[in-house]
Amino acid sequence: MSLNTISTNFLQLQCPSPTLIPKSHSRRRTFLARNANGSEPELSSNGYPSPPTTKTTPTPFPGKPEADVVVIGSGIGGLCCAGLLSRYQQDVIVLESHDAPGGAAHSFQKKGYKFDSGPSLFSGFQSRGPQANPLAQVLDALGESIPCASYDSWMVYIPEGEFLSRIGPTEFFKDLEKYASLNAVREWRKLLDAILPMSTAAMALPPLSIRGDWGVLSTAATRYGPSLLKSFAQMGPQGALSATKLLRPFSEIIDSLELKDPFIRNWIDLLSFLLAGVKSDGVLSAEMVYMFAEWYKPGCSLEYPLHGSGAVVDALVRGIQKFGGRISLRSHVENIVVQNGQAVGVKLRSGQFVRAKKAVVSNASMWDTLNLLPQEVIPKSYEDRIKTTPQCESFMHLHVGFDAEGIREDLGIHHIVVNDWKRGVDADQNVVLISVPSVLSPDLAPPGKHVLHAYAPGTESFERWEGLDRRSAEYKELKAERSEFLWKAVERAIGPGFDREKCEVKLVGTPLTHRRYLRRNRGTYGPAIKAGQGTFPGHSTPIPQLYCCGDSTFPGIGVPAVAASGAIVANSLVSVSQHSQLLDAVGI
C-alpha cells in the first residue's frame, strides 16, 4: 500500500482543532515586503490592479536569501504550509509574484470598494474539536481566529422558480414540497437518513494528524484508530458497508439509494459543482458527506469572514509572522534550482538566488511547477503524467461597485442562478454564482454602496481567448459578449433597482485575467480529476527535496482541501515527535 493511499484513506476532507497554542516560543525577525514606494498598484487596461511585470522594480529582498524551507506562492495551501512550518520553528520564506498574498483568495481595492477575487462561500471557521475543518484547524494551531457573520440561506433562481434556500435539517423540505414534489421530499429524507450517520466516519480523523510518510501510522492510525473503529461500530453493518463508499463517486451512493427524482438529482449535482467544480459522478463521497453534515445538521450555519476573504489571508500571514516566518511579495520565481539531483532553492526574476536548506514547496499548479524545473532533471514519466492530466476550464468574473439606493433591504449575500437543468450545471454559461458581501460586512464598500462579485466557475474555455491581445478591440468586444450572461444574472438577482449603467466600478475578468493575475496555466480552475477515474497526486515529487501543495495535489480543489494539502506537507517535513507535540498542544 502506498503512502498516498494511506493518506487518502485517512483524510476525508475536513476535521478538527481546538485550543490555542502555548505562547512560549522564540521569535525571529519577520518581514512582509510590499511595493517599494508603498503606493497603490497601478491599474491595467481592464481596470484590475496590475500584477508585477518584468519592468517592475523588484522589492528589496527581506533578510538573508535562504531558509530551511522556501514556499513558492502564497495561496491558501502555501500559507497553511508555511504557517505550520513556522509553528514547528522551521525557518520559512514564502515567495509571492503578486503585489498581495492569497493567490485565488486575495482581495483588491478600487475606488473605495474592496473585492474578493475568489471564494466567498465558507463554513466551519468557528468549528472546534476533532471535527473542525482543515483551515480552522491550521488557524487554531497558529493561535489565530477570524470574526465572521453567520447566515443560513441563499437565494436560488432555477427553471422551476426562485426561492430562499435555507440550510438545516428541515427547512429544505418545504422548498421541495413547493417547487418539486412529495416524492422529492421522500427521496431527500432518504438521502439524509443514509449519509448523515456516515459523516461520523468521514470526519473521524483530524486533518492535522495526516502526514505523507509512514509516521502517519503513529500520528493518525494509532492515535485516532479506536475512535474510527467506534464510529463504524455505531453505524451498524449496513452503515459501515455504505461508509466503504466514501472514496468512490457520490453518484454511486445516490444510485444505491435508488434516488431518481429529477429535481433531487439536479440539486445534488449543483451542490457538488459548488463544492468541487464537478457533478456528483466526479466528486468524492467523503467531500459531499462532510458538506451535508455541515449544511444539513441541526444548528448549522454558513459564515462570511468580516472584512472579506482577505481577512482569511491576513490571519494566516499573521500566524506565519508570529512564529518568525517571512513573506516576500513581488518576488517572482523564475525557476527551481536543482543541483546533484535535488532541489536546493529558487532563482527569482531579479536574478536573486534563494537557498532552501531542507526543501522547496511549490504552491503553483502542477503544470506551472513543471515549467519551473530544468528540462534535463524531469523524469519523462512525471512529465507525461502532468501533461496528460485533464484541466478544468477557466472563469468569467464580474466585479461591480454600485449604489444601494433603490435596492431592497432584504438583499442576501449569496445568489445562485441556474438557467437550464437539461444542459447540466457544468455547461458553458449556465450557472452563475453571485456574492454581495457588503450585505454582511458593510466596510467592504463606501457608505450607502454595495460590492458584488459574480462568476461562472470552471466553465469558460481558454481556447476562445488564447492569443488575443488584451488591448485589442477584438478582446474588448469578446469581453462584452461573454460577460452579458453575468450581467443578466445580476440584474435578475438584485432586482429592478439595479442599473448597470450607473455602477461606479465595472470590471470584467476573463481566462486571460485568470492566467495573468494568478499565474495559472491556461487560467485553469485546476485538475479535472474525477473520483473513481483517477486520484489527485501526492505531495512529494521525483525530485528530492521538492514538494507540492495546493489544488493540484490530494485532496483536490477547494479551500478546505488546499488547506489540508498544505498541512500534510508541513507535517511531512518535521519529525513524528514534533508533529505529535503539536497535536497535543492544540488538544486533538
Automatic annotation (TrEMBL):
Source domain of life: Eukaryota
Name under which the protein is recorded: Uncharacterized protein
Organism: Rhododendron molle (Chinese azalea)
